[in-house]
Amino acid sequence: xxxxxxxxxxxxxxxxxxxxxxxxxxxxxxxxxxxxxxxxxxxxxxxxxxxxxxxxxxxxxxxxxxxxxxxxxxxxxxxxxxxxxxxxxxxxxxxxxxxxxxxxxxxxxxxxxxxxxxxxxxxxxxxxxxxxxxxxxxxxxxxxxxxxxxxxxxxxxxxxxxxxxxxxxxxxxxxxxxxxxxxxxxxxxxxxxxxxxxxxxxxxxxxxxxxxxxxxxxxxxxxxxxxxxxxxxxxxxxxxxxxxxxxxxxxxxxxxxxxxxxxxxxxxxxxxxxxxxxxxxxxxxxxxxxxxxxxxxxxxxxxxxxxxxxxxxxxxxxxxxxxxxxxxxxxxxxxxxxxxxxxxxxxxxxxxxxxxxxxxxxx
Length: 363
Description:
The chain is mainly α and about 375 residues long. The chain is built from 13 helices and no strands. The two termini are about 15 Å apart.
């Protein structure tokens, strides 16, 4: 059965937006630490919601592309190989580079990064007490686990996989609302984390999109935007809300409505998107992996040169964002894209995709 491939320009744009939100979130905090300046009154400190957006998009994309593979165990090998190629090679390169850096310049890290236990778990993206060597890798741990759970849907017959998925969802909900308390049990708390709800929301969006004709797309987008803005405002007022299930629900449902409506609109209408936004979407993973340490380096340098810096802090921090984005895109073009094309060609026997920005393949 031929895999579904469709041009979803707005999904690709959303990927870029999610990466930029996280980048500005980290930049706002790091800029305040090194330059003692609160960027735009701290409004972009809420940019961590880009992670929530990523999880929704991932759930939708995986379900949309692979829903017809569910219950067909022969499809699992290709699914796992595709996910491995997409995530691990570039992640491994960045992790190796940072590990080398932490050994050479220990004060660049927190201190635990050179522990053998942390190194092994970081490369495997296995959940642990600390963040992985690449700090944003904690989100990839959730991503990989979602892939594992979805691979079970592919490998097992539905009568078994549905039971496992249902028990997983019940466990997530129970942990999220406090019926069970797994806070001190690292692995179980990870397995039943409320973040996993967002992958499930994305899958639900994919299911609805494939099986129902959705109306009132403008209303859905409006509801999603209102929910998104309201959530942003309340978290901006109290950042501790970000750790609650309520925040996951508000942003998860809001992003789900936006994604559902936009893919429905794009299904019947060809939407022209500026090429640079598509390029940002293509490079979103590279931007996501590289941005924090680029920003850290820039701010360390700027803090030493602050006395001779001719620009005000707002311009200075904004320029660091732009530089981090440009370098992330360059990493994608020079390293990520050629490597993935090579692996796809030699492992999956797939032809390279079209040039960045010319088409968006949901895969």
